[in-house]
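Archive record:
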Amino acid sequence: MLSFNIAGVLNAREIPNHNQYLCRHGFSPFMVSRWLNHKTQSISNRNLEQLCLLLHCTPNDLYVYSSTPNTFQTKNQPLYNLKPLTVKQPVVQLLHQLSVEQFKEVRDAFDEILKNMEHEKHP
């Protein structure tokens, strides 16, 4: 069964108030409620594109597939790649556990990633 799982991406991005965040970014409270309460039967391409741009993700990140007993199953079915995102301990909590030296190393690595991203934008 294919299902829309926006909460997984919001949790992975450590966005605390899903409803408020999505409404603040232009989505109607009615639609947001349906998405967050798994009452979505379909989503427009326009909304899907807006969500992907907002959350910096792909449609594949927003969908989860779980097989049902009546489903014809093959091991190489591409839908099996649509798995829920694994949510780990929030990054902020992890950073607080680091020594000052470890924090500097993480910060330097983060700065390098940002530098590379900027270089990709403006070669």
About this structure: The longest strand covers residues 2-4. The chain has a mean pLDDT of 87. The radius of gyration is 18 Å. The chain has two domains: 2-85, 89-123.
